Automatic annotation (TrEMBL):
Keyword Oxidoreductase appears in the UniProt entry: yes
Pfam family for this entry, one: FA_desaturase
Cited InterPro entries: FA_desaturase_dom (IPR005804), Fatty_acid_desaturase (IPR012171)
Named cofactor requirement(s): Fe(2+)
Designated name of the protein: Fatty acid desaturase, type 2
Originating organism: Prochlorococcus marinus (strain MIT 9303)
Similarity comment text for this entry: Belongs to the fatty acid desaturase type 2 family.
All residue ranges annotated as the Fatty acid desaturase domain in the record: 68-345
Length: 380
C-alpha cells in the first residue's frame, strides 16, 4: 500500500544520494552555526510556557467530577513539555552551544527532569542517527523480517503477519497504537525493544550483565551510571513532593503529562522513519547518508511546530546535519528540498491518519531478491 509519498522512497538509489560536501554547499552559511544566546532564549521560551501551564494546573481542584478538564490539562501540559525534551535532545547533539559544559548541564538537567537518562540516551540516539533504517544495526523501530535469520535480521515477521491476520485490521491497529505509544518508550529504555539485533537485550540504566554491553562501549559505561544519578535525584524529588502534597497531585501535575510527552516522542521516532513505502536497508545498499535521507518530514501545524521547535517538520535535515540548531532547520529544509527534490521526503498525510496507516500496514518486512532493500508486507 502506497503512502502519501506515492512510492517516492522506493525510486531512490544509493547513487542518487548527494555527499555531505554537496549538501553543505546548498545550505545557507548561517545554518551551520549555533548561538548560545539564541538557544538560551528558546530554552527560556519553553520554560516560561511550561511554568504558565503548570501554574494553571495547580489552580485546578483535584476533583474527579472535572476529570475532562484534567484530561485536557494533561494533553496541553505534556504537549508543551515536549518542547523542553526537544531542547535537551539538541544538547545531546552538540547543537545547543559551543560551550560544552553549559550544553551538557542544560541537557542533563532537562532530561533528568523528564526521567530520561541523558548520556545513555545520547549514546543510543547517536547509533540511531548513524544507522537510520538499517535492518540490523538500527536502534529504533527496526522491523521484524519475514523468514529472517535472527542474526543480521530480526526473525519472526511471519508470526506477526499471522497474528495481524487473526486479530483483523482494526484490532491489530489499536493494539499496535497502545503498544507503541503507551509502552514503547519505557520498553525501549529497559530492554532495547524495537532496536536492531546487533546490540541484543540492552538497558539504559544498567550497562553490564545480565544485559548486553554491546551498546555501551567502555567509555560509555561510567556515563550510564552518571545518567542514573540524575534519574535518582529526580525520583527523590518526586517522592518528597508526593509525601508533602500527596501522590494524586504528583500524578495530576507531573506523571500524566509525562505520559503525553512519551507519546509525542514515540510518535516522532515512529512516523519519521516508518511508512508503508519507505524501505529498510542492509549490506552495501546502506550508507549513513542514504539512511538519513529516508527520514520523512510531516505536517504538524504552526502551533505544534512552535511548541516543539519544528522537530517533526524538519526531521530530514536534522538527520542529515544533526549538529544544526533547530532555529536554522526551517531555512535549511527549504534549501534541501529545492536542491535535491528526488531524495527529499515529505508526506502531507495528517498525523492521526498517518499513525493509523502505519500501525495497521507496517507489520513486517521481506527482503527483495537481488537487493539490499526490505519492504513492508501485511495480510490485508
Amino acid at each position: 500500500m502506497m503512502s502519501g509519498l506515492n512510492g517516492k522512497a522506493l525510486k531512490v538509489s544509493k547513487a542518487d544520494i548527494p555527499d555531505l560536501a554537496a549538501i553543505k554547499a546548498v545550505l545557507p552559511h548561517q545554518c551551520l552555526n549555533c548561538s548560545t544566546n539564541t538557544s538560551l532564549a528558546y530554552l527560556a521560551q519553553s520554560l516560561t510556557i511550561q511554568v504558565i501551564v503548570i501554574s494553571i494546573g495547580m489552580s485546578i481542584p483535584l476533583n474527579v467530577e472535572i476529570l475532562p478538564v484534567w484530561v485536557l490539562y494533561w494533553l496541553v501540559s505534556g504537549t508543551t513539555a515536549m518542547g523542553l525534551w526537544v531542547i535537551a535532545h539538541e544538547c545531546g547533539h552538540g547543537a545547543f552551544s559551543k560551550n560544552r559544559k553549559l550544553e551538557t548541564f542544560v541537557g542533563y538537567v532537562l532530561h533528568s527532569m523528564l526521567l530520561v537518562p541523558y548520556f545513555s540516551w545520547q549514546r543510543s540516539h547517536l547509533v540511531h542517527h548513524t544507522y537510520t533504517n538499517h535492518i540490523a544495526n538500527g536502534e529504533t523501530h527496526v522491523p521484524l523480517v519475514i523468514r529472517g535469520n535472527g542474526i543480521d535480521e530480526q526473525a519472526g515477521g511471519e508470526k506477526d503477519i499471522a497474528i495481524a491476520g487473526r486479530l483483523g485490521k482494526v484490532q491489530y491497529g489499536v493494539f499496535q497504537l497502545v503498544l507503541h505509544l503507551v509502552f514503547g518508550w519505557p520498553a525501549y529504555l529497559l530492554t532495547g525493544k524495537t532496536g536492531g539485533p546487533k546490540y541484543g537485550l540492552s538497558n539504559h540504566f544498567w550497562p553490564i550483565a545480565p544485559f548486553s554491553r554491546k551498546l555501551w562501549t567502555k567509555k560509555w559505561i561510567n556515563k550510564v551510571w552518571l545518567s542514573d544519578w540524575g534519574i535518582c535525584l529526580a525520583l527523590f524529588a518526586l517522592i518528597a513532593w508526593s509525601l508533602h502534597d500527596g501522590f494524586v497531585t504528583v500524578f495530576a501535575i507531573y506523571l500524566a503529562p509525562l505520559l503525553v510527552v512519551n507519546i509525542w516522542l514515540v510518535t516522532y521516532t515512529w512516523l519519521h522513519h516508518t511508512d508503508t513505502d519507505v524501505p529498510h536497508l542492509g549490506g552495501s545498499d546502506f550508507s549513513q547518508l542514504r539512511g538519513a535521507f529516508l527520514s520523512i518530514d510531516r505536517p504538524y501545524g504552526k502551533v505544534i511546530d512552535f511548541l516543539h521547535h519544528k522537530i517533526g517538520s524538519t526531521h530530514a535535515i536534522h538527520h542529515i546535519a544533526p549538529w544544526m540548531p533547530h532555529y536554522h532547520a526551517g531555512k535549511a529544509t527549504i534549501a534541501l528540498k529545492n536542491a535535491f527534490p528526488k531524495v527529499y521526503l515529505y508526506n502531507q498525510t495528517p498525523i492521526l491518519q498517518a499513525l493509523w496507516l502505519i500501525s495497521t500496514n507496517c507489520i513486517a518486512v521481506t527482503r527483495e531478491e537481488n537487493s539490499g532493500r526490505y519492504v513492508w508486507k501485511n495480510p490485508w
